[in-house]
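Possible regression after last week's pipeline update?

I re-ran a chain I had predicted before the update to compare outputs. Posting the input and the new output here so someone can diff against the archived version. Not blocking, just want to make sure nothing changed silently.
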Amino acid sequence: MAAVGIGAARRTLAGGERRELCFIHTHTGEHLTALYYDAGAYCQAALARVNELLRDFRTETVFPIDPQALDRLYALQVVTGRREPFEIISGYRSPVTNAALRRNSHGVAEHSLHMQGRAIDARLQGYPTSQLAALARAQMSGGTGFYRVSDFIHVDTGAVRIWGDPI
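New output (post-update):
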């Protein structure tokens, strides 16, 4: 079933459709609904708003988020059939923030793709995170981590790899 859904999501991403995502940032409480792709192109004004929401809230540093990371979330939204917001735990991380988090946790990569704007930690409001992780792993289009205790997934636009808790 996941393979059928992922195939449908890939067909959707190949077309010229409109892509919209809703977010709630768990640390700042900020909300955003962004039509980030329309008429065959990424919408720069919407991407700027996404970059602002996914900034390093600890340092207030705004950095461009890779639109393909947003596409991974959008594909998950399509497959799940849900329109609820993605709850954002982490988007961009400055090197200073990443180093501080790394000192306090063994789960933070020294060269994290968060520092390149290529990774997002999230969960989908009202949807089982373990199922979301299974769908993200089935995408086979970047890195996917699953953190059961903290209740979130990590998706990135790096090489295909899987880590974290078993599903």
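Follow-up from reviewer: compared with the archived run. The chain has one domain: 2-164. Marking as no regression found.
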